[in-house]
Design brief:
There is one protein chain. 46% of the residues lie in helices and 15% in strands. By secondary structure, it is an alpha/beta fold. It has a single domain, classed as NAD(P)-binding Rossmann-like Domain (Rossmann fold). Helix 3 runs parallel beside helix 4. It starts with 8 loop residues before the first strand and ends in a 7-residue tail after the last strand. 42% of the residues are buried.
Length: 251
């Protein structure tokens, strides 16, 4: 199904590679003007932009630390000067994951993840919300993770922060529904991207064997559901957590 996002402005955080890049490409293919946010990988962000332009789309790159209040304000101002108001916000940026057993886990390890996955969405939404409310239109899409359901050992810092995102999504969905602003969360399974380049192949194979569909997902699987949620086809879907993991969590 083709989705029409012409005249819509989409901001994807952490879009220089991996899942974020796939989302940016598919949103642009649907006609959105795409703001590609990155923190440090400028060359890779430029590559995503070049791919979009080559295919006839519209995109620009925007550097910014999405956990810093002044940086997020500046990021939003630069995007609106370039493209206009943000209609679609995809909260995708992530940080390096830290696996630690309980005995050596520190409170700072927990705070680092909460800082990223709770503070960043709050700062971003606070910037785009006034225009969305004025238009009575908006799409806010969190990128979560299946780890919240699966309870991966030695990963409670990440799992609890991703669980907090689910809480944000549901509360915001209720609060913003009267303004016709939808808020949803896409929860991918383990999808190998550049971030996982050093992961042992035996770990990947073992994971795939235990997925009901018996294979890993691809970045485009996430890009496709995000594009759907950003479109008018999903205008009556809000407050939902959608797992994209081959049936790995059936709840």
């Amino acid at each position: 199904m083709k989705h029409d996002l012409k005249n819509r402005v989409a901001l994807i955080t952490g879009a220089s590679r991996g899942l974020g890049a796939a989302m940016a490409l598919q949103l642009a293919e649907a006609g959105a003007k795409v703001a590609i946010n990155y923190f440090s990988r400028k060359e890779e962000a430029e590559g995503v932009k070049a791919s979009i332009l080559k295919n006839g789309g519209v995109a620009e790159i925007f550097q910014g630390d999405v956990t810093d209040e002044s940086a997020v304000k500046d990021l939003h101002q630069r995007i609106t000067r370039t493209f206009g108001d943000v209609d679609i916000l995809v909260i995708n940026a992530t940080l390096v994951h830290v696996h630690k057993p309980i005995e050596v886990l520190t409170w700072q390890d927990m705070l680092d993840h909460l800082h990223f996955f709770v503070k960043s969405p709050l700062l971003l939404v606070q910037q785009v919300l006034p225009a969305m409310k004025a238009k009575r239109y908006g799409r806010i899409i969190h990128i979560g993770s299946e780890v919240f359901d699966r309870g991966i050992p030695e990963f409670c810092n990440y799992a609890s922060a991703k669980g907090a995102q689910v809480g944000l999504m549901r509360s915001w969905a209720n609060e913003l529904a009267p303004y016709q602003i939808t808020v949803n969360l896409v929860a991918p399974g383990w999808i190998p991207t550049e971030m996982h380049a050093d992961d042992p192949q035996e770990f990947i194979d073992d994971y795939a064997r235990n997925v009901p569909m018996k294979h890993m997902g691809e970045p485009n699987d996430i890009g496709a559901i995000v594009t759907f949620l950003a479109s008018d086809a999903a205008k009556f879907i809000t407050g939902q957590r959608i797992s994209v993991n081959g049936g790995n969590t059936m709840i």
